Amino acid sequence: MNLINEPVVFFGTGPVAATSLKLLTQNFRVEAVVTKPRPLHHHGNVPVLEVAEKLNLPIIEVSNKKESTDKVIAAHFSSRLGVLIDFGILIEQKVIDSFSLGIVNSHFSLLPQWRGADPITFSILSGQSKTGVSLMLLVEAMDEGPLLAVSEMDVPPGTTTPELTQNLIELSDTLLKDVLPKYTAGKLTGSSQEKIAETVGYSARPTYSRKLTKEDGILDWRTPAKQLEREIRAYIEWPKSRCILGGHAVIVTASHVITDEQHSVGSKQSPGSILVVNKTLTIQTSDGKLAIDRIKPAGKHEMSIDAFLNGYGKDL
Questions:
Q1: Mean pLDDT score of the chain, rounded to an integer?
Q2: Domain 4-200 in CATH: superfamily?
Q3: Is residue 135 scored above 70 in pLDDT?
Q4: Fold for domain 214-315?
């Protein structure tokens, strides 16, 4: 394996970071991995720690911004460049300045679209047909740094968050492998997000994502069916799309939209009204009906709507 002759320090914590780190080590020499420690009393996976340990990479564990600053500055890295993906801790300017070439953040949206904590989910929620990866030079302000490069990709209808995440991880790795050698060789400099957006031809108006809460997963039938279908795809891993059907707590894992013109049985019902016809279950929303395709009752395995109706249909 021929590594690119430029060491980097990797900053990352979550599952996206873990997969990205594994790919990054195939092309770059990683001097150290800066990541969050294993939480107390945590018995589940700690993805980045596990990847770093398996690859015998030096690890620096940091829990907050101050600890990150103190430990990174004290490390006196030889690397001129940091690479940050899915880190979850704000970086102070003095940490950025400790690398002569700064820190490159691979952000999974077309900046300035979806700055913030969860750009992938919000790309699906917004119904956009394209997203991408932006390689940004980190600044203290949230996701406002100059861009080294962007790369677009399509978001096909029906895409879920896990599917889009994997595609963006692979796109990010391809972009890092292509762009970082040019940047470290002095052949590439950053440009403003607005300039890049205008050049590529997408909106330069900033939009912002946020961290999701468990309450986001509650299906509200007063919302249009089109938006609820997006939520179900976007929230399939977390917080999951939940509701009560026939007195049973369920998680909806797949659905499709039926407009009122396509499915007009009697007069339009109020939002939340359930209709079962020919082994299909539809729920009236504020605009259109949502057909439930797959579902997971509490304490049970995921099942088709046909199987659900066979077991629970009498309660609807």
A1: 94
A2: Formyl transferase, N-terminal domain (3.40.50.170)
A3: yes
A4: Methionyl-tRNA Fmet Formyltransferase; Chain A, domain 2 (3.10.25)
The arithmetic mean of pLDDT across residues 128-148, rounded, is: 96
- Six token digits for residue 149: 């490069």
Q: Is 210 left (phi over 0), alpha (psi -120 to 50) or beta?
A: beta
Task: Return the C-alpha torsion angle 279, 287, 233, 105, nearest 10.
Answer: 180
Q: In whole angstroms, give the CA distance from residue 212 to residue 121.
A: 9
What average pLDDT does this structure show over 167-180?
A: 97
Please state, in angstroms and rounded to a whole number, the distance separating the CA atoms of residues 178 and 298. Answer: 46
Structure tokens, 268 = 């339009």
Of 7 and 266, the structure prediction assigns the larger pLDDT to 7
Per-domain boundaries in the chain: 4-200, 214-315
DSSP state of 3: -
| Distance, CA of 71 to CA of 59 (rounded, Å) | 11
Query: What's the length of the chain?
Result: 316
The pairing of strands 274-277 and 280-284 is antiparallel
d(CA 302, CA 236): 12
pTM greater than 0.85 (yes/no): yes
Residue 165: Cβ within 10 Å count: 19
> Do 4-200 and 214-315 fold alike per CATH?
no
- For residue 260 the two structure tokens come to 């009122």
Question: In this model, does residue 188 exceed pLDDT 60?
Answer: yes
Cα 215 to chain centroid distance, Å, stands at: 18
How far apart CA 119 and CA 208 sit, in angstroms, is: 8
Q: Residue 290: which H helix or E strand, with range?
A: strand 289-297
Structure tokens at 281: 């279950």
Alpha carbons within 13 A on the beta-carbon side of 17: 24
